[in-house]
Amino acid sequence: MSKIFFTGDLHFGHENVIAFDNRPFESVEEMDSELIRRWNDKVGKDDFTYVLGDMIWKTRNDNAPSIIKNLNGQIILIKGNHDRFLNNAKAKAALAGVKDYDDICVTLEDGTKKRVILSHYFIPMYNGSRYQAIHLHAHSHFTDEADYEIDFAAKLNAEGIRNEIYNVGCMYWNFEPVTLDEIIAHGRTIRPNYGTKVTAGKN
């Protein structure tokens, strides 16, 4: 039976993101190779992976089709602000789908069905939030913005405005795709320097 995975902010081919996220790679070539290896160690040929934006950096447009073909399974991209590689027709055709947003149903390992709202960006009052739906997003990396998202979601919950929101950016998940079961079991995604103000560079 096929599985569904989630990830985001991979930034294949983006050298500056190594320092931006403090990624444990010495070069962009090592990062790209390791991202592919970790993906394929978890994702099978019959599985589906939703990438919640910023998959391949613009400087890797020509390499985008081969990167996608080297990744196991079917890939559905929820567009981010850096997905200019979609201008490459062969790369776009290699994906199973491209959307701005999605609203799906995921079955957990225990058979429970969960409604899941997918977007590159954090949506505090997302569709179905009051009715046990889960929201997955990416985009904020390890910046102060990620803290504001966590704090705002907590404030809404404290005031009785229910939400269950997780950041699936790859830097939070050992640079590999994760299932909804793994996400829920882990709990909210908090950056390593949560609560400490940092000045982030451009990603």
Summarize the structure in words.
With 203 residues, the protein is an alpha/beta fold. It has a single domain, classed as Metallo-dependent phosphatases (Purple Acid Phosphatase, chain A, domain 2, 4-Layer Sandwich). The protein is 27% helix and 17% strand. The strands form two sheets. A four-stranded parallel beta sheet has the order 1-2-3-4. A four-stranded mixed beta sheet has the order 5-6-7-8, sandwiched between helices. Strand 5 and strand 6 form a beta hairpin. It is globular, with a radius of gyration of 16 Å. The mean pLDDT is 95.
What brief labels describe this structure?
globular, Purple Acid Phosphatase, chain A, domain 2, four-stranded parallel beta sheet, four-stranded mixed beta sheet, alpha/beta, 203 residues, 6 helices, 27% helix, single chain, 17% strand
Please summarize what this structure is.
The chain is built from 6 helices and 8 strands. With 203 residues, the chain is of the alpha/beta class. The protein starts with a strand and ends in a 17-residue tail after the last helix.
